[in-house]
Amino acid sequence: MKIGILGGGQLAAMMAQAGAPLGMDFVFLDPAADACAGHHGQLLVDDWASAPERTELAACDRLTCDFENVSAEVLEALAERQTVRPAPSAFAAAQDRLTEKQLFEELEIPLAPFAAVDSRPELLAALERIGYPAVLKTRRFGYDGKGQAVLRGPEDLEPAWAALGGNSLVLEGWVPFEHECALTAVRSASGEVRFYPPSWTLHADGILRVTLAPGRLPEPTVTEAQARLKRLLDHLDYVGCLTLELFAADSGLLANEFAPRVHNSAHWTIEGAETSQFENHLRAVADLPLGSTAARGESIMLNWIGALPSIERLLEVPGLSWHDYRKQARPGRKVGHATIVAADRDQLIERVETVKSRLDRQWAPWLDRALGALG
Amino acid sequence: MKIGILGGGQLAAMMAQAGAPLGMDFVFLDPAADACAGHHGQLLVDDWASAPERTELAACDRLTCDFENVSAEVLEALAERQTVRPAPSAFAAAQDRLTEKQLFEELEIPLAPFAAVDSRPELLAALERIGYPAVLKTRRFGYDGKGQAVLRGPEDLEPAWAALGGNSLVLEGWVPFEHECALTAVRSASGEVRFYPPSWTLHADGILRVTLAPGRLPEPTVTEAQARLKRLLDHLDYVGCLTLELFAADSGLLANEFAPRVHNSAHWTIEGAETSQFENHLRAVADLPLGSTAARGESIMLNWIGALPSIERLLEVPGLSWHDYRKQARPGRKVGHATIVAADRDQLIERVETVKSRLDRQWAPWLDRALGALG
Known about the structure:
- Chains A, B: InterPro entries: ATP-grasp, ATP-grasp_carboxylate-amine, ATP_grasp_subdomain_1, PreATP-grasp_dom_sf, PurK, PurK_C, PurT/PurK_preATP-grasp, Rudment_hybrid_motif.
- Chains A, B: Pathway: Purine metabolism; IMP biosynthesis via de novo pathway; 5-amino-1-(5-phospho-D-ribosyl)imidazole-4-carboxylate from 5-amino-1-(5-phospho-D-ribosyl)imidazole (N5-CAIR route): step 1/2.
- Two copies of one chain form a homodimer.
- With 375 residues, the first copy, chain A, is an alpha+beta fold.
- Chain A folds into three domains: 2-84, Rossmann fold (3-Layer(aba) Sandwich); 113-173, Dna Ligase, domain 1 (2-Layer Sandwich); 177-374, ATP-grasp fold, B domain (D-amino Acid Aminotransferase, Chain A, domain 1).
- Chain A is built from 13 helices and 17 strands.
- The first copy, chain A, has helices spanning 10-19, 55-58, 72-79, 88-95, 97-106, 120-130, 157-164, 219-235, 269-272, 277-285, 311-314, 345-358, 363-374, and strands at residues 2-6, 25-30, 42-45, 62-65, 114-117, 134-138, 148-151, 169-173, 177-187, 193-195, 199-204, 207-213, 240-249, 252-259, 298-305, 320-324, 334-342.
- Chain A is globular, with a radius of gyration of 20 Å.
- The A-B interface holds A 17, 20-23, 25, 39-40, 274-275, 283, 288-289, 291-292, 294, 296-297, 311-312, 315-316, 318-324, 326, 341, 343 and B 17, 20-23, 25, 39-40, 274, 283, 288-289, 291-292, 294, 296-297, 311-312, 315-316, 318-324, 326, 341, 343.
């Protein structure tokens, strides 16, 4: 079985690491010559638009993506001749924040109030309706907090418009949330859906820093969130893993956005679940039976942003698994992560305390938040 | 960190899979152009004897082996200019069954009676002393039951001598054992030793078929076996993982042989231990801190010999992880394995029953033996 992946970043690399023991070979397409998945298969260095002409991709049994902004047109051209999973329509829906929010509304998935903004008068009208604070975001190509401006009050309006005006935008009401969380599911071509336990997530500067899994949410809340996510998956006739990011607000869970691919918030599943998201995505894509999504113990995942911390000091922590993406260090770049798995909550707390004593102090407030959630 | 591995089989491949997330690159030397580790790094196709001349190996930060019969002379030549772990002396000791047994004796590690046999009169004298049943084995290059003949009584003497006479041999007393087991340890360059839980192993036709881990042995027996293995590791100033195979006899554990490398009986550690044998071997070789060797739940490993069974039926079993070595099917060849991990013994029994119903019936007696050991 040969799998072609559009995108050659760490998500593609981790898919290849999960797929090799299943007997799969991988081909990656990425515009960057140093794309890190190149360590795990054949790397084609080319523009996304070249995909339909590349014979190496045409020779693959299945195509999938590690990147959600591959143009839906390119994916549709590929889907005309071979199996692309998930289908291009899922990308089209996720690539535009307005379409995405309208889809949530249509499927009765609760979310914060929002409005399309294409002009300054529309922004003023939207603020009138939604009120401050609010977040102005580009409809397309935003990720990890890029293309966003928070409007705390009227004084933030001009700088935000100067930065983002001219793009197609969406204004979102600011949700006062207790914490963020993520729900990852895998769906097979026959429509079977399995859910990973929801996770507790912590972002800083728009980038995920910490995931705890399983997160602690009341059972009825989880059941309801799963039903909503299932409506989305079924609507898209989705095949593979998908993550829905949510705000845990007073009024319940509110959808933020979804990613039609494997997702950073579910990296903990490599060591912390019976089957990882990467393996389950590939199983779905390749028409193999889905694997168990049950958690194995209690996990915390820490994202290494910009540069790796000292491996020597951290590998001494029991239950810690290291993931070096082999990317060049650069501010704001995801260059690796670590997951610590423990048998139970008390052991996890002890291990997190050890990690905290060995990490740079920028980590202290984030790990204190996590320890508070583990409580 | 670049690691060179002499040998490019599945053990090398699984080392590379464990090392990639640690940021390691791999170069393999193997005489076979289709050596399966080639999927995971640069494969040099050449004789073992070429190793000292290959600049790609000279450029490695560390060298190790996935194969115990690389000549100690070649390893010594390499060790003169770079770090080879474990040291060549460990290979020299393991490559000759007579040296190996004499070393066990010297270190007061109990084993079955044995005698060197280089001629027919020596064989008769050895049989006089040891008695029937006994096993005649070549001193060198035996593995997976090859180069062996069982002598149940005088009628087996002539055929065994016809098959093996002319080689340097060793006669071993036949040990009536309840079961076989294996003890794997990892030792760092600073002398720290960590033990994996001992496993219960089942062989058929000289080839490992099933491992259960943790195996059930009385605590004093385990402590004593660990002390013996530590004497061996310290004597060899060993760096990396080593497995000691043992017979559980009425008189206690008797040493069979040791392997100066990662070992088939510890494949369960990939999913079933906090740190796999492959990662811990590399951590030791690369002077990184050793990882926890604690078990995660209860595991069973099944070896796929000759050909892979149907992946579709087996991936439905919860907690089952598949390992396709991507080797051509051939009778007697190890082409893959699967490990099933469960939270506890009852869940493992249930999962083994499910697997049994989905495998060819040659598996029934082996799995019944395993269920008996679990029971």
